[in-house]
Amino acid sequence: MRVFVFLAAMLCGLSSFAAGRCDVAAPIETADLGDVRLAYQSVGRARDPALLLVMGLGGQLIHWPDEVVERLCRQGFRVIRFDNRDVGLSTWAHRPAAPNLTYEVLRYRLGIGVTAPYRLRDMASDALGLMDDLGIQRFHVLGASMGGMIAQHLADLSPERVLSLTLIMTSSGAQGLPAPSPALLQLLARREADSREQAIEQQADLLAALGSPAVSDDRGQLLEQARLSYDRAFNPEGVQRQLLAILAEPSRVELLNRLRVPTLVVHGTADPLLPVMHGVHVAAHIRGSELRLIPGLAHRFQEAFKEPLLAVVLPYLAAHRQTVGVAQL
């Protein structure tokens, strides 16, 4: 009986310890990388394998759901999420997005070069600089949407440092892949607002359009998400500059063909922004990659798809985490 009580107490203590080390309320810190200062949060122990989360267009680090970050940390990772340049609490470029964003989108559709103040590869260099600042030599990377595009560059820039790559709802940028509807692109590029209330309504409209038709969104929850984003940081010109970085990007097929990093590609069958063939195409060009399609998933982290996503991502990361050693409790 005493042994049983001791083991129970030890297990409870370990559970509490795990909860403490996976505190998603850890402070937001900054890394000064020279021209760019990045806001980031580190959740977990410094000695655990690092997992870098790279967010998509206009997304802030708070758009990685806290529960997902905690689940990843409990898997034994030190989870690092950050604001890309031009969003959130990181450096804003303070330069005009473009003379005319509509004109640049037209140039993109015609296959003419797009002018952008920086490129996705520059944003990948930002991420590498953050890991340098933290003293982390090797790490895992999980990128979503534009973050998946940045992650592709990151793995190409420094393949010896990237232990595994998880790419969610992203693209190769190749010509000929299915395009989003013009209406959705307009919502994505629409950033002018006369008031906080109008900006929040617009963001809620965009979130709804990026969601799955199989899920009925609660408008109040969408508005609350939009309020949190707006009140933390609202930089519409920065989002336009990020969009230009995407549009200015040539096809990454050659880059993908030379990657030799263990890679998982996850895509939804109902993605309205990057239809499912984008994910299929990415996986087809990364040697040895695994492709997992999630029925009904669109282009947002919706509650209904949280468990299906984690059921795919967690085992993959766990398997590759073990290749570099199991962290000690």
Automatic annotation (TrEMBL):
Enzyme Commission identifier(s): 3.1.1.95
Any GO MF annotation of the entry: triacylglycerol lipase activity
Top-level taxonomic group: Bacteria
Keyword Hydrolase: yes
One of the protein's GO biological processes: glycerolipid catabolic process
Keywords (A to Z) from UniProt: Hydrolase, Signal
Signal peptide coordinates: 1-18
InterPro entries: AB_hydrolase, AB_hydrolase_1, AB_hydrolase_fold
Domain AB hydrolase-1: start-end pairs: 49-299
Pfam family, one: Abhydrolase_1
This protein's name: Aclacinomycin methylesterase RdmC
Species this chain originates from: Zestomonas carbonaria
Name of the gene this protein is made from: rdmC
